[in-house]
Structure formats: C-alpha cells, structure tokens
Amino acid sequence: MNSSEINDYAAAIREAILAHEADIECLDREIGDGDHYINMKRGCEAIAGLADELSTLSSADALNKIGMKLLSTIGGASGPLFASFFMSMSKSLKVNDASSDTFSRLHIALAFETGVQAIMQRGKAQAGEKTMLDVLIPVATAFKQLAEQGQSSKDIATTLKNIASDGLESTRDMLATKGRASGLGERAIGHLDAGAKSCEVMIHTVCDLVLAGQ
Fold first, then answer.
1. How far is Cα 107 from Cα 96, in angstroms, rounded to an integer?
2. What homologous superfamily does CATH list for 3-211?
C-alpha cells in the first residue's frame, strides 16, 4: 500500500458515497441526526483535495494527514472518530517502518485493527450498540485472522465484503445504546444504522478495487 493506492481508494470511496446518497440519508433521517451523509460527503471532498499533497508522502504520513484533515473538516461525532482511525493506522504502520511503503497484508490488517480500536476508545462504544462498529469490529477481526493464515488479498477481500454486509444487517434488530438513536428506544429496532451503512459502502469499495487487481 502506497500513497498512490491511498489516493485511488479515496477517489473510489468518494464516488461510492455520492452514489449511495439516497440510501444513507434515508437511514439517517429514520433514526439519526440527519447530517451523517453531509459529513461523510464533506470528509470525502476534503480528502480528494489532498491528492497532490498525499502523493508526495509515505503511506503512514498520508494516513496521518488524512486524519488531521478530517478532524478539522467533519462536524458532529464522525470527525473525531474517523480522524482517530486514520491517525492510529498511521502510528501502527510507522512502528513497522516509517520510511517504507512495503507492508505485508498482516501489517495492514494490524493497522486497521488499531484504527478500529481507536474508534472504540474515542466513542466509548463496542459491538452490539447499533453503530459503525458493528461493521468495523467483525471486519477487523476477520482481516487479522485471514492475514495471519496467509490468505490471498483477493480471498480476504471477498470474505470481508460478506462480513461487512452481515455486520450492517445485524444492526437492523439491535436496540441502539449510542448516539441519537439511543433515545428512540425500541422504535429504532427494524432500522439499519447509517454509520454502519457508510462503513459497509467504504469497505466494499476498497475490496472491489482489490478484486479488480488495482
């Protein structure tokens, strides 16, 4: 993974988020604050604006730059959470080798896991609370396990797509205990979480690029 690939992923994620505007906004209007899509779009646009600068950086520094940009750009709860994710991923990669972009699948999996743990700590949340973590935690766990087993990138990508979809669907029958939806009680049951949907879209997008050989 290098900065060029990070830019490719960011550009593809931006297009995917825009394409799922109706889905994400509908879910957020049902049980959220109604601003999740706006914040996601703003974050994607901000990262796209960094493309030239990111292309000159190592992957670890590029991820840190993205995190700092999101922290100053996205409003609500999403900004600090996603900023923590990218900045923690950056720190994890730097532990391996700050001057190299030659990372194994396991290095990337461990960095992803570290980023998800940062979201958990920042948001004081865990799986089962009807949030983005219901997608991110199982994906991180499986990513690490598959990388440790030496699975190929394409096999990992295929599996993670399925796990992300299952994680999203799992939020439908959950009682929300975090965020605005937590105040709705049982009325939130039967609805998917918008943050989980956004994460599913992003994970699917990156996995599709891997499957396409990019």
1. 8
2. DhaL domain (1.25.40.340)
CB 53 within 8 A of CB 33: no
Chain position carrying tokens 């973590």: 133
8 Å CB contact between 34 and 28? yes
> pTM, whole model, 2 decimals?
0.91
Rg (CA), the chain: 16
Range 104-107 contact pairs with CB under 8 angstroms and sequence separation of 24 or more: 104/147, 105/147, 105/151, 105/153, 105/156, 106/144, 106/147, 106/148
Each residue's pLDDT tens digit, 124-153: 999 999 999 999 999 999 999 999 999 999
CA distance 47 to 132: 20
Q: Where are the domains of the chain?
A: 3-211
Distance CA 210, CA 194 (A): 25
Instruction: Check: CB of residue 71 under 8 Å from CB of residue 42.
Output: no
Residue 60 pLDDT exceeds 50: yes
Phi and psi torsions of 57, nearest 5°: -105, 160
Closest to 35 in 3D by CA, of 196, 190, 192, 195 = 195
Number of Cα atoms under 13 Å in the Cβ half of residue 174 = 24
49, 41 contact by CB (below 8 A):
no
